[in-house]
Amino acid sequence: MTASQENAATRETAGQTDAGQTDAAQTETAQAQAAPSAAEQFGEQISASAAQKMQTRDDGSLDVLASAGGWRGLAEASLPAAAFLTAFLVTEELSTALLLALGMGVLFTVVRLVQRGSLLQSFSGLVGVAICAAFAQVSGEARDYFLPGFFINIGYLLVFAVSVAIRWPLMGVLFGFVRGEGTSWRRDDLRRRRYALATWIIAAVLATRLAVQLPMYWADATGALGTARVVMGVPLYALGLWLGWMITRPTEQEQRTSAVQDHDG
């Protein structure tokens, strides 16, 4: 083989190597772009966990009552507080009211255990009632039965606000999984803004509770505070949930576009 032939062969081999390296780099880049990021994977896991509580009807609409816990969830969230308030207003004895609320919590827990509910689900309500009762017992003030609820609302309000600020609105994380979108909605500015608005609606529910109930707490208006806590509990949350679902419904055009993308993919 002549020197010129050797040089040509060398150049050809080098060209093939460069082309192979280029193809490999392009393949790796495409795989990296196609693979979900760690944040997206985490979002999917949160979505799946949270969305287990969401229920939809056969026509794809949100079953608000079922998603808010159903009639049982409504009873478990409302009756212990209602029982506490009624007993205190009638007897004016804090210990009697606390015992009745705790008894109601124990009853709901036993029913769930008999029906083979999970331990976490069965005892979570009772723990919540016990914490409220402990606050009232320690202070000796009936109004402090409702004090833990303020901290919970403030905590959730901060979480919802932060989720919007970091462009992961929680209602998008929740509804996105229920609708089969996963976290793909984050790549659509319009859908992300809608989910942010839905998140602000739930945040507004929490803020409204605080705005209405805190002045009652400071005024020691236990009767009004207890009534407001029951009325503004699950029912108000369910309303916010329904509004958030409705304003984030994909339009027909968005559904067609999504179907085309899925087909092409």
Ordered list of secondary-structure elements with their pairings:
Layout: H1 3-34, H2 38-51, H3 64-67, H4 70-91, H5 94-114, H6 119-139, H7 147-165, H8 170-178, H9 189-218, H10 222-231, H11 234-247, H12 252-264
Contiguous low-pLDDT stretches (5 residues minimum) are 27-34
Query: Helicity level, as a percent range?
Result: over 70%
The rounded Rg comes to 28 Å
The number of distinct β-strands equals 0
Tally of helical runs: 12
Terminal Cα span = 50 Å
Look at the helices and sheets and give the structural class.
Answer: mainly alpha
Mean pLDDT: 79
Biggest beta sheet summary: none
Indicate the overall shape: globular
The fraction of residues assigned to DSSP E strands is under 5%
In sequence order, what are the helices and strands, one letter per element? HHHHHHHHHHHH
